[in-house]
Amino acid sequence: MIIETGQIIGPLLLSLKTVMVCSTLFLLVGIPTAYYLAKENLRCKWLFESIVTMPLVFPPIAVGFFLLMLLGRDGVLGGVLGKLDMAVIFEFPALVIAGFIAGLPLMVKPLQSAIEHFPKPIVEASFISGKGEMRTLFAVILPSIKRSLVAALLIASARALGEVGITLILGGNIIGETDTISLALYNAVIDGEYDLAWQLSGILTGIALV
């Protein structure tokens, strides 16, 4: 079977673009969320933690269905976005949302644990010296747990790269538009194109090892 370069390059570039956006969101949203959940006196902490970790224990297809009902044309948010002429479902933003939802728990939970185990006297000393919460977080805590931060970011990004279930529902698996490398692998297997499937699997394996 002759494999066209576009069958690999297109999905790969789309996946890398998606992961780059997701990684940025993991930093912008994941860090404050982890710090917030690490607070000892946080009310309804169990509820917020349950919401964040839900994608880990809930079937991705079901998560995708709920998001489709929410963001679809007749959904609560989808209707508002439609009036603003903003398309989400079956578009690139759907891929980002899928990867972000799937990877966020793997960004937040390890980072939350690292923050919770950070020495309290150092945090208190930072507060006494006049630093606020955010400055303490970014100038004192995060530099000290940077290995945990990098590890969490890599794992979350890898999860976003390998996401299939939510992406399949929200993105629609449109060939040449929303077929990420993981969906391209799925399509290759379904179509019996095993040579292509082996090559795509090899690429994903290499990325995972790196």
Task: Describe how the helices and strands are arranged.
Elements: H1 6-37, H2 45-57, H3 60-71, H4 76-83, H5 92-116, H6 120-128, H7 133-144, H8 146-162, H9 165-171, H10 181-190, H11 194-209
Helix pairs in contact: 1-5, 1-8, 1-10, 2-5, 3-9, 5-8, 5-9, 6-7, 10-11
Indicate the low-confidence ranges by residue numbers.
Answer: none
Structural class per helix/strand content? mainly alpha
Oligomeric composition of the shown chains: single chain
Strand content: under 5%
Mean pLDDT level: 89
Main sheet: strands, sense, barrel: none
Give the termini separation: 29 Å
Helix content: over 70%
Q: Count the E strands.
A: 0
Topology as a string of helices (H) and strands (E):
HHHHHHHHHHH
Number of helices: 11
Characterization of the model:
- The structure is a single chain.
- The protein has eleven helices and no strands.
- With 210 residues, the chain is an all-alpha fold.
- Helix 2 (45-57) crosses helix 5, helix 5 (92-116) packs antiparallel against helix 9 (165-171) and helix 6 packs across helix 7.
- The protein is globular and about 65 Å long.
- The mean pLDDT is 89.
